[in-house]
Amino acid sequence: MADGAWGSRTRRRFYIDLRHCNHAPSAALAQRKGGPCYMHKDAAVTSSLYPHLFATLGDAVERLPDDLAKALETTLGTTMGAQADEGITLLGCLQRIRHVEAADGQPWPGKGRKQGHGIAMARIDRANAGLTLLLELLHAIERVRVDGDEGQQVGDDVREGLLLACRGLAEYVDLQLHPV
Known about the structure:
This protein has 180 residues and is mostly helical. Among the domains are: 14-21 and 34-87, no CATH class; 115-177. 56% of the residues lie in helices and 3% in strands. The protein is built from 7 helices and 2 strands; from the N terminus they run βαβαααααα. It has helices at 27-31, 43-49, 51-57, 66-83, 90-98, 115-147, 156-177, and strands spanning 14-16, 39-41. The protein has a two-stranded antiparallel sheet with strand order 1-2. Helix 2 (43-49) packs across helix 3 (51-57). The longest helix is centred in the last third of the chain and has 33 residues, at 115-147. The chain starts with 13 loop residues before the first strand and ends with a helix.
């Protein structure tokens, strides 16, 4: 009973999903009692076993075979270690974004604040940066519309899309500042 009623803990990482079978099992799998046809990995286990791969692919890591995931994780880990001193890397940026960084790429300063407040402030900062960019783009589009060549102008649908994006970001900032 040391392993529990369901077997050892290492075996609990996988479960069998027979609904996805569209072929007859191989001879090796057919000999096993209840041989698995299609195996899924637990997301929590996957993110802890393959942190670099999980930062790159997200939940798609669960669908990779273990031997491929191990090889990719080793490669990414080596690459991350080698590039740690080189400055900004794609994987490093992805990991920092997941750890609540503001629009300038730096973590939100959390002097005496709760983590939830820091997350909300970083989201507001990113949305505000996006809103500023969209408004600057709209301003440039308007200048080209009034003073520029006709070939450089964008259509009404593009301008309306940008305005709707601005509205959406402004509403998002409002929701972050005044939660329902």
